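Holo model, zinc ion. Inputs:
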Amino acid sequence: MGMYDDIKFEIKCPNCKNKMDNFQSKNGPCIMIELNFYQVDRFYASCLNCNTWVEFNLYNRPNKKITINDYNKTVKIPTPEEQEAHRKKYEEFAKLIYGSKNKNANQEGDGK
Ligand SMILES: [Zn+2]
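Output:
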């Protein structure tokens, strides 16, 4: 449950131009291995920066070497409000991770 495979593929986000290299697919064995995009019919990612959804679908597998142009590309750009909400959530998450680590380090330092 919740397993997938990583896809070796990267593009610039169509919305914010951030690098997207976190593509995943459930078409493979779903054992957290790395696959090439042409090995799967569907793979997707959401931009870590702005939450834009990018999905590639291959509906007809051609009898030749498959290129990314054979895939149907879907892009869903969130509204500016949704993008702002995502950024805030991401910032809070980063604060939680990195902020608490520093606090713990200080507390240890203050101990007897
Ligand atoms: Zn983006």
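The chain has two domains: 1-78, 79-112. The pocket of zinc ion is lined by residues 13, 15-16, 18, 47, 49-50, 52 (CB under 6 Å).
Archived with the compound record.
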